[in-house]
Amino acid sequence: MSVPYAKLPAWAEYGLIPLVNLVVAFLISGLVVLIVGESPLEAAYHMINGAFGRGEYIGFTLYYTTTFIFTGLSVAVAFHCGLFNIGTEGQAYIGGIGVALACLAFDRTLPWYLVFPIAIVGASFFGALWALIPGWLQAKRGSHIVITTIMFNFIAASLMNYLLNKVFKPLGSMSLETRTFDAGGQLPKLDWLMSIFGLSVGSAPFNISFLLALLVSFGVWVLIWRTKLGYEMRTMGHSPAAARYAGIKEAKIIIITMMLSGALAGMMALNPIMGEQFRMQLDFVQGAGFVGIAVALMGRSHPAGIIPAALLFGMLYQGGAEISFEMPSISRDMIVIIQGLVILFAGALEHMFRPAITRIVLGLSPKTSDVAATKGA
Amino acid sequence: MELFQVFIELAQSTVRVSTPLILAALAGLFTERAGVFDIGLEGKMLGAAFAAGAVAYITQSVMMGLLAAILISVLLSLVHGYASITQRGNQIVSGVAINFVVAGATVILGQAWFKQGGRTPALSADGRFGTIKLPFADSLRDVPILGQVYSDLLSGHSPLTYLAFLMVPASWWILYRTRFGLRLRAVGENPGAVDTAGISVIWLRYRAVICCGILCGVAGAYLSLAANAGFTKGMTAGKGYIALAALIFAKWRPKNILFACLLFGFLDAFAIRYQGYAFPLIGKVPVQLMQALPYILTVILLAGFIGKAIPPKAGGVPYVKER
Amino acid sequence: MSELAIELKGIDKSFGLVHANRNINLKVRKGTIHGIIGENGAGKSTLMSILYGFYQADHGDILIDGSKVDIRDPNAAIAAGIGMVHQHFMLVENFTVLENIMLGAEESQILNAGITKARAELKRLEKEYALEVDPDAVIEELPVGIQQRVEILKALYRKADILILDEPTGVLTPAEADHLFRILQQLKEQGKTVILITHKLREIMAITDEVSVMRRGEMVATRTTKETSVEELAELMVGRRVLLRVEKGEAKPADVKLSVRNLTVRDSRGVTMVDDVSFDIRAGEIVGIAGVAGNGQSELLEAISGIRRAASGTVLLSGSAIDVTGDADPAALRKRGLAHVPEDRHHVGLVLKFDESENAILGYHDDPKYRKGFLLDVDAIRADAEEKIAAYDIRPPNPRLKTANFSGGNQQKIVLAREMERGPEVLIIGQPTRGVDVGAIEFIHKRIIEMRDQGKAVLLVSVELDEIRALSDRILVMFAGRIVGERTPEASEGELGLLMAGVEGPKEAAE
């Protein structure tokens, strides 16, 4: 029985280890800043200030957070069933079709609060559709979901490029986007929410889809931990053999899980399309699908962890914009680096510091190590 | 003959476009056959391209650039190797993470060092790979058909291109005719068999990962030192993923990799040339369909509709001595 | 030069709290076939792993040919002349025979140079030991018996003088097994030393010169094969342990509830694991299946419970058929009154990461009483779990605690409570007290008897002969996938031991 995998108390398992992973990611990012000849401390200041310094900044941060909550939930739901859905990026992109269709059809005739639900259905439907094929291939033909979803991301990019060019683009326009939506296709901002805290939202596109994200987070929690489907998903994710024993239909669960994951990814599209740009543009997803992977990993696939993790990345994005403004040698690509490092340390290297932490934590508490010794074998 | 001219031009483009694909796919071959799944080919190529462009400019030497490319790529491979082999982490996550870090770092460092918006400065002739003219290329050009094939298609490519094509039989030879290759293939199928024969699974896998790094390094160097005159932001543009698709499409065999990469390269060259062209019967084929075709073909293969793609049995699974 | 090929002195090895090898002393003479016999868990595999360099002993010495050797990895073992033929072959399936044999002993970096030499050497070995095999055949296309020959050739190719074979006949047909024995004889005549690890007495008596018996981590005895008997070996193997006394009244068997006819199950490699098995189980009786692990009992349970597809045969549950050769649905079977306590509670019977109450409904989570509208009624589930915790004295009595934190005995009680408390008609149980502390064992046994007295039909599979004898009303012995005998619990240990080792019985295991 090896010490490194002895049981740690919950606070170390869910609090300390993720925190250490995060700190290391940031430290290395700080090194990159140094290499570029800038001050990491100054960068850190600008980041925090840029994310939270003013009401408007907070608004932007929360706007990004909204997107990442959706994509984080999408990846997390698939994780619970033991599936690695890298296709959130493409599923979110295709989900945009549903949103665009709803808005283009009804923005002039219906108010936003009627278009919104239609758009939600549309986004979920198209997102689920794009996840269905890889899901079906995995369930019925054993095709590795990771590879198929990567391929589908690229196919989605080509498909959307084509659609925006040939179908959605208004005649005579040069840019690859739909026409701008009228009032029915525009979500109201959450300025009233911010003013409760004495803050002004300014020009930030912080909109009502944030509330949808919170609602959906709760819904995901209910689904995973309070429904039969969620129970079956989790059983499959922990132990396919136990799932078989329990009479759970493997293929069915895989397909349904992927569809749910795709639907959540699709919902992400509501935020930029109806909340900020009021049209569907080329590549409105901008890598949010991949950030979702980082968010899900950091948040341990639980909504209670995903929301703060999404907030962290929202902060990184908004703060990053501020850094690139104040310190021109550090562009927004810095965020991509940090994101990558977080994924690396919270994901692939998550056990790297475990031996050291275990020695320190268990060293402090002999009782814990005894328990660990008898239970571990 | 106009048709023949078209053929020659298309073939030339195909060869040029396929070069980095072949190198990257071969890189993936080595690592995946050893059981380490790598979707970070894209990141390694990009990092290598940047290193090549930067160092070639600073040193005004193309060979130094190539060396730098290989070094950076091997370094990234070792990070992935450390995460996958030693730390037994999730290999997909590691690959995705490295792609991100490289995508961001190349721009940040590029901007900081060269202040040209993320690219490296344009390279002069010293810093680039020229083309190689095969002997008698000029004099043979007038020979009907074969002459042009020789002078325009076979001759006149970058040395890295010739290297890439040579690497196909070379890789085959390494994998199937050397001790190293035998053990590498074994460790991807049954690491237990390798372990019980007294061979170190870990060291073997690290060597495979290093081979991957070297080949990706050359692929990246090709992009910034041969195909173009320097590094531009995001210049790999998904080629690493196409190479991965080609590798799978080729069912992890060197000979097939050549054809798969040529096929995918051809699709790309075809798409560029015939953008907006109206074909008889079919009409205009959307360029986006052409772009998506390599990925669609790979999915069809994975679905088992064109034969079975059986990956190395121990692929993606960290080796834990099962006792 | 010593007359001993191997001598082990005081070998001791523990894994945490598990004392796998206790002060083992062993002498293996050169040029002999030495058998090591014992039940599962006796410590044979650990001992051999130490000899082959997979593990290092905590204490003790290994002497090869009279001199002390430090075997720290397989390379050292190979250098010392030890070759191992593993139970689960260490072969690369899509390589040829030649490639597999050369792996690790290629002679040179460029294969071609070594290949001619290898072919020649291989031919020589094949002739010398009658181990014919086509060097260019691909492993996955070869029958299992031939694959095993490749394993043996691998060892010989590396100049092994000592060959260790770990349960070699498990995957062989009787004819292939006989051929293997001829090969071993040949090896012995060529001066090799062979160590044969097995639980099958017939093999021991057939070809070994000496046999050592292991039991519970200790080396219990060594005998010259000619001078001992199967009865003596069986008793040494199984041991005179204290019989667990369980209070039970007379059985009152009623209608047949589970009827198995001609059930045959093959594993993924095509090896027949359950061979034409037929038996009935009536309401109100416990039928125990005795046998050493690996003789088909697991596959039998899996086929009946719908987890594994059978090749042929029929199973009737309360008169109506279970689609064992097709798509039997474990959930549907539960609804029809079949409950299953699986052998592997860690990976099959429980999800260790779930909390206790979630595991208490595993397989029954569809039950409307656990639901409130669309959602799971967590309160109802917890209340239900608490009832079961009280009834089965599960400790700690906390339905919210993660199942991994319960002890083995309590984990098993969770599974039993779940499967027993719903009033099934038929209960099939595998290894009910494996890894369970003594206090819980008594409780579990009582419960099983109770189920019988309530009129349930119980099928009990256990490798613990005591348990089978204490609980069963009828005992069926399984060996090599077949039922080789039926006895009452009054049958002696020795008699049952013989059947379990494939020696006696109305159906001979091999002719």
Automatic annotation (TrEMBL), chain A:
Keywords: Cell membrane, Membrane, Sugar transport, Transmembrane, Transmembrane helix, Transport. GO terms for molecular function: transmembrane transporter activity. It is a multi-pass membrane protein. InterPro entries: ABC_transp_permease. The keyword Cell membrane applies. It is found in: Cell membrane. The keyword NADP does not apply. One of its GO terms (cellular component) is plasma membrane. The chain crosses the membrane at residues 12-37, 57-79, 91-107, 113-133, 145-164, 196-224, 253-274, 280-299, 330-349. It comes from the Bacteria. This is Simple sugar transport system permease protein. It comes from Shinella fusca.
UniProtKB/TrEMBL annotation, chain B:
GO terms for cellular component: plasma membrane. Keywords: Cell membrane, Membrane, Sugar transport, Transmembrane, Transmembrane helix, Transport. InterPro entries: ABC_transp_permease. Its main location: membrane. Pfam families: BPD_transp_2 (PF02653). It is a multi-pass membrane protein. One of its GO terms (molecular function) is transmembrane transporter activity. It is found in: Cell membrane. The chain crosses the membrane at residues 54-80, 92-114, 159-176, 206-225, 231-250, 257-276, 288-306. The keyword Electron transport does not apply. It comes from the Bacteria. PANTHER family: GUANOSINE ABC TRANSPORTER PERMEASE PROTEIN NUPQ, SUGAR ABC TRANSPORTER INTEGRAL MEMBRANE PROTEIN-RELATED. This is Simple sugar transport system permease protein. It comes from Shinella fusca. The lineage of its organism: Bacteria, Pseudomonadati, Pseudomonadota, Alphaproteobacteria, Hyphomicrobiales.
